[in-house]
Amino acid sequence: EAGVAQSPRYKIIEKRQSVAFWCNPISGHATLYWYQQILGQGPKLLIQFQNNGVVDDSQLPKDRFSAERLKGVDSTLKIQPAKLEDSAVYLCASSQTTDTQYFGPGTRLTVL
Amino acid sequence: GESVGLHLPTLSVQEGDNSIINCAYSNSASDYFIWYKQESGKGPQFIIDIRSNMDKRQGQRVTVLLNKTVKHLSLQIAATQPGDSAVYFCAEKGAAGNKLTFGGGTRVLVKP
Q1: What is the DSSP letter of B51?
Q2: Fewer Cβ in 10 A, N or C end of chain A?
Q3: How much is the pLDDT for A70?
Q4: What pLDDT shows up at residue B5?
Q5: Which chain A residues have a beta carbon less than 8 Å from that of B105?
Q6: A65 and A109 in contact (C-beta within 8 Å)?
């Protein structure tokens, strides 16, 4: 079974630029999550989708972050404009209706 | 508020010995707990989970213990191997939704 795919794996941008990350969940997984993991910390949930609807985006900084999952499969997370404190690893995870979430390899973002 | 934390930030263990990683949680309503392993440059990898109606669960070389009285979770790794070197996170899920709250992580270093 293929795992969660993410791209790009690494991205370096300057502050105030825009960036987008892509995620393809495990086939058949209805729920998709985006997490932010700052170095040395545990992942923090940004947004959760059930199919193409948002379940929880309470910790998403909506003034600069946006995410979509238009067809209920792939998802993109965008940051516009980026700030220095956005430097982190952005993890995508997916799950079926059970509790276990499976994570992708992440995208490491560096904002200069 | 809800919080999941770990007692020891770094655990150094001799190859072949058993490892014990501890985690405290504060939300007594949490009903599901997961341990993840994260190697450098990779996303968190599911190790084992346990529901609140259980106090012990065993997997291959790993055992999770749950003490609801003191809100404590532990992960035991038997016969620790070099490949077990990683950061380990505990995570909890409340009764509503599928949102995981992660602790800060414990780094396990296996000495040959």
Answers
A1: E
A2: N
A3: 81
A4: 46
A5: 40-42
A6: no
